Amino acid sequence: MKRIVSAAAAALGAALLVPLMATSAQAASCASGTFCLYYNSNLGGSHVALNRNVPDLAGYKFTTSGAGQGQYVKNNAASAQNMSQCKATVFFYSNYGGPSDGFNYRDSGNLVNTYNENASVYFATSCG
């Protein structure tokens, strides 16, 4: 009898963990129609989702759970993912200047030219 109760408890525990894992994975992903900057390399840590041009990232913070949550985005992003329909470009300087890293639709990866030195984001005016 103890064996049956233990097996049932283990199965119930496993069933409860699956939705929790899916929820945290969904919360960590970049939503459709947005461009996300991540605090850590390889799309790790907290992220911020953007859907419009940002000439100066000062004042923007990483909002999701994970390393870097609550930190300012400017000069702190290490990777990015583009789920918007337009090409998004991260610039070293405010007002879209200096070295940059571009991401087409569904592209993602570590920032190279703007790694932890990112100040603005620009979305291409024509998509396609």
TrEMBL record:
Keywords: Signal. It holds the Pfam family Inhibitor_I36. Residues 1-27 form the signal peptide. It comes from the Bacteria. This is Peptidase inhibitor family I36 protein. The keyword Signal applies.
